[in-house]
Amino acid sequence: xxxxxxxxxMLSPTWRSSLEDAFLWIGGWRPTMAFHLLYSKAGLQFxxxxxELLQGLRTSDLGDLSATQLAQIDEIQKxxxxxxxxxxxxxxxxxxxxxxxxxxxxxxxxxxxxxxEVEERVDSALMPKEEGLEEILQRADGLRLxxxxxxxxxxxxxxxxxxxxxxxxxxLRLHEWxxxxxxxxxxxxxxxxxxGTIHDLSTSR
Length: 205
Hints:
Distance between the termini: 58 Å
Radius of gyration: 24 Å
Order of helices and strands: HHHHHHHHH
Structural class: mainly alpha
Shape: flat
Strand content: under 5%
């Protein structure tokens, strides 16, 4: 719903840190990342309880994935990779339309007419661009949702808990680390700015 109101805000959320932005894929997390997270957490839990598993005991966590589950996850991963690439290509193609002939004509027209006319021309040129972004964002969100649903439907209830907790922890850690780095950088930039001002004042005297 918010994408219909302001798709640009959803593609570049102000509440995210620069670290999170660096790993952003069309307004959110990359769907294939869910599989890397699943396998990483499964590997850690498998190593931690290797002795129990070798004794034939069930741990009920992600280290206890069955061969059937792994095959099903692999099948979903292949489909997700293919669709993710398709959506990525859609975004790349759409981004190239910023330099198409209609935009060039609009750029030339902005030199003519009053302020209101110029704004109307710009809006009419950008409207189909934003509509295209909205469609791509909806496809990306749809793939994210289907990926989560597909993984959760394969996992047993306790395994789902381990997976979702791992996903939440990763999200919160990235956000926390990113915010701390952004704050530290702003403080350093402020220090350098103050030092530069003091230097300028001293040299002017």
